[in-house]
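Quick check before the chapter quiz. The format below is the same one you will see on the exam, so make sure you can read both the input and the output lines.
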Amino acid sequence: MALSKRKVKYIIAGLLVAAVLILVFQNSDNTSIRFLVFEWRLPTLVVILGTFLIGVFVGMIMLRRR
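Here is the expected output.
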């Protein structure tokens, strides 16, 4: 049984999401985030998850433009 390109993409996406979730749940300490003049103290898991979601959003936008 050969895997289609679509199935391979879903498998890779699933593995990446699993890796991000493992990273998120293993990093629950607080960290300081500075952006321009603003500074926030957030759990690292929020920073990692937020960065991942921004990346997914940007990726979706880039795919729609093609």
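If your answer matched, good. The mean pLDDT is 84.
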